[in-house]
Specification:
By secondary structure, this protein is an alpha/beta fold. The protein is built from 13 helices and 14 strands. It has a seven-stranded mixed sheet with strand order 1-11-10-5-4-2-3, with helices on both faces. A three-stranded antiparallel sheet has the order 12-13-14.
Length: about 400
């Protein structure tokens, strides 16, 4: 599903040079490469502040901690996503409130988010799944109407663009005002830089990955950025003076050096993913047994994963077995929705509560879309997927 060796070959000289400099400096924690990466990523995202941390999961936990939520406060989360969002919400004593997803884009359904808001609701975790942004205009409008925070889980969507609005004028979303002029593309913001806090993961197989765990948060708000930075370093600044209860969650210097080598190449990586996805679309759109990934009119798609939907779980599993027999990898993201996971049985959700998420888990299959696939490999994948149905 990924080719990290091929990725490394294209950037190894830059990484070696940067890592050698880190080792020589011995500044392994909070070294110069971390500050450089935070500055570079902030510029790339169009964000005022970026703060590195130890993982995408930590980024979500730090975001919730920075908002001063109290035990029992409710946080709206999609029922279909990776476990991190519900995990950190539960750890902090908050109440996860799950909602169903849009069947085409796999992201939060705004109508169901609106219906899930109660007086105890304090935040929405808006997950940009598989590389495509959810409807952030709706999320921010719901938040503004109800006094909520919006945390963008952009761990799978770095480099995607959210299209706010076309035309001329001023747009107010929560505490942020956007002035814009008429362009063919409308006003765009990078995934993670629209809500109150954006969270990123640099797990090795992400579109922007390091050589271990790593993460970051971004925000436009000065006070929130200062608090996030302190929480990520034991709640302290200066050292040994602890303002907040915090974590030991810092992006280490060697991982920042790796990320600094990859960041200038991120757009090129994403364009290649998009090219492969377009080829798959053309190949599979006429296959009646498959549904290609839907596209949101509000977002570009950077295809952390390219996910097909089969007609049934049985057919999906048979297709996966067929591909495996031909040395074609595939993955099920995700085999079980959050409300049916044993760890969260105490939330008292039942099978049937979120039918779109449940159906998606039974039918979804991801095929390789990473930038280092050769034309021969892509054609081989296409041919054998279609051969299965023919």
């Amino acid at each position: 599903m990924a080719d990290l060796r091929a990725q490394h070959r294209g950037v190894r000289k830059s990484i070696r040079r940067r890592v050698k400099r880190v080792v020589k400096s011995t500044s392994f924690i909070q070294g110069e490469e971390v500050a450089v990466f935070e500055k570079n990523l902030a510029r790339y995202l169009g964000a005022k502040h970026v703060i590195g941390c130890a993982s995408g999961t930590d980024a979500l936990q730090i975001a919730l901690m920075a908002l001063d939520l109290q035990p029992g406060d409710e946080v709206i989360i999609p029922a279909f996503t990776f476990v991190s969002a519900i995990e950190v919400t539960t750890i902090l004593g908050l109440k996860p409130v799950l909602v169903d997803i849009n069947p085409d884009t796999f992201t939060l359904d705004p109508l169901q988010v609106k219906q899930a808001v109660t007086p105890r609701t304090k935040a929405i975790i808006a997950t940009h799944l598989f590389g495509q942004c959810c409807d952030m205009t709706s999320m921010m409008e719901i938040a503004e109407q109800n006094g909520l925070f919006v945390i963008e889980d952009a761990c799978q969507a770095i480099g995607s663009e959210y299209i706010l609005r076309e035309g001329v004028g001023e747009l107010q979303l929560g505490p942020f005002t956007y002035n814009y002029t008429c362009t063919p593309q409308g006003i765009r913001k990078m995934a993670g830089a629209v809500g109150h806090i954006g969270c990123f993961s640099f797990f090795p197989t992400k579109n922007l990955g390091c050589y271990g765990d790593g993460g970051a948060l971004c925000t436009q708000l000065d006070d929130l950025a200062d608090k996030i930075r302190k929480i990520a370093s034991h709640g302290a600044s200066p050292k040994y003076f602890h303002t907040y209860v915090g974590l030991n969650s810092r992006l280490d210097t060697i991982q920042a050096a790796v990320l600094n080598a990859h960041l200038p190449r991120l757009n090129r990586y994403n364009r290649r993913r998009q090219e492969i996805a377009r080829y798959y679309d053309r190949s599979f759109v006429s296959c009646m047994q498959l549904k290609v990934p839907g596209r949101s009119p509000h977002s570009t798609h950077t295809f952390h994963q390219y996910c097909l939907l089969c007609r049934s779980e049985r057919e999906r599993n048979a297709l996966r077995f067929h591909l495996e027999s031909l040395n074609i990898p595939s993955m099920v993201y995700y085999p079980l929705p959050l409300h049916l996971q044993e760890a969260y049985a105490n939330l008292n959700y039942r099978e049937g509560d979120f039918p779109v998420a449940e159906s998606t888990c039974r039918r979804i299959l991801a095929i390789p879309v990473h930038p280092w696939l050769s034309k021969k490999q892509i054609r081989y994948i296409r041919r054998n997927v279609l051969n299965f149905f023919e």
